[in-house]
């Protein structure tokens, strides 16, 4: 099969629309699908939402979702399903278009609640994902995820709510494209060797994007980044993963910035997701996120970040009073009335 990377260079010489058409034509030709010609045209292109509809007449041939991301040679295209007589594809592409734009994605970490995730999905393609520390999507007022992609998380080695034996089945049934693994094992008595063995058995077999266990920002020996380094060593090259997963709680933006840069310097070859972060109780959360969001948006090595937490003050108190003690409620993305909070509004 031809290597699509061989065709990357012309993207830099083409308009965005033309490049996307070329990628689609290459994809259809490689897979012997019905011919797609330039006469089909690209309509509905929006640089910010990155949704492109390729049509012939009234028939939608395919839908393409473009994501600009380094490295240049990393291009993944995968078909999702067929609709009626016409191929209907969701294509994930990370091509040389990263040179045109460098963005990160926002996500929502949600405590189970009746809130509507769609409130924080502003439609511009920035807020794209939701997770809830479990392998089932959170109950919401709309019964769905507000148009956001759900990321399953096997937060513990096993639990009644997310049995590890059902992990693969739930992923297949719900169609996640990404999985997160253990939640803060570095401070919960799980050794790097135990985590590596568990990961190889349960996470490796999932043929989707994978994140290593989410570690804390603890600087205690054997915790945080040092625990992560020990787990990677314990894996001995046998753990298949796409991202390292970080948590951070602290007292200032400068401290957060230093932590993220330290993580990158320690693991320069790995893409980072940040699935929890906020100031500890008493800090100015709005001012912190006003600095943190643009900082993260400027980092090519950070793919996804999730401010803590997509819930309301009342629901956080009901679901996790310990978090209220540690973080307070100023970082909640919702008001008690269900609308976006001062921090939630920063996501628009």
UniProtKB/TrEMBL annotation:
GO MF: hydrolase activity
Domain Asl1-like glycosyl hydrolase catalytic: 111-318
Signal sequence segment: none
KW Transcription regulation (keyword) present: no
Entry superkingdom: Eukaryota
Biological process per Gene Ontology, one example term: fungal-type cell wall polysaccharide metabolic process
Cellular-component GO terms for this entry: fungal-type cell wall
Protein name: Glycoside hydrolase family 128 protein
Organism for this UniProt entry: Lentinula edodes (Shiitake mushroom)
């Amino acid at each position: 099969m031809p290597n699509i990377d061989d065709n990357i260079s012309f993207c830099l010489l083409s308009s965005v629309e033309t490049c996307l058409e070329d990628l689609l034509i290459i994809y259809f030709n490689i897979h012997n699908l019905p011919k797609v010609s330039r006469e089909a045209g690209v309509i509905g292109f929006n640089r910010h939402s990155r949704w492109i509809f390729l049509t012939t007449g009234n028939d939608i041939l395919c839908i393409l979702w473009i994501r600009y991301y380094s490295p240049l040679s990393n291009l993944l295209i995968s078909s999702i399903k067929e609709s009626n007589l016409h191929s209907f594809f969701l294509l994930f592409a990370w091509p040389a278009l990263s040179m045109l734009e460098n963005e990160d994605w926002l996500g929502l970490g949600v405590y189970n609640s009746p809130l509507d995730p769609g409130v924080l999905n502003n439609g511009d393609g920035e807020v794209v994902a939701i997770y809830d520390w479990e392998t089932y999507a959170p109950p919401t007022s709309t019964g769905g995820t507000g148009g956001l992609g759900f990321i399953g998380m096997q937060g513990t080695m096993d639990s009644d709510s997310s049995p590890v034996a059902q992990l693969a089945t739930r992923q297949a049934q719900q169609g996640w494209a990404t999985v997160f693994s253990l939640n803060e094992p570095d401070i919960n008595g799980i050794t790097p060797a135990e985590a590596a063995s568990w990961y190889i058995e349960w996470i490796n077999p999932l043929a989707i994007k994978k994140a290593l266990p989410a570690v804390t920002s603890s600087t205690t020996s054997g915790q945080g980044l040092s625990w992560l380094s020990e787990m990677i060593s314990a894996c001995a090259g046998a753990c298949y993963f796409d991202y390292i997963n970080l948590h951070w709680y602290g007292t200032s933006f400068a401290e957060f910035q230093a932590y993220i840069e330290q993580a990158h310097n320690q693991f320069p070859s790995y893409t980072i997701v940040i699935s929890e972060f906020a100031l500890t109780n008493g800090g100015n959360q709005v001012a912190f996120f006003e600095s943190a969001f643009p900082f993260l948006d400027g980092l090519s090595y950070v793919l996804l970040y999730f401010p803590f937490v997509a819930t309301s003050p009342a629901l956080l108190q009901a679901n996790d009073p310990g978090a209220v003690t540690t973080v307070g409620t100023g970082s909640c993305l919702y008001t008690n009335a269900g609308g976006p909070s001062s921090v939630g509004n920063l996501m628009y």
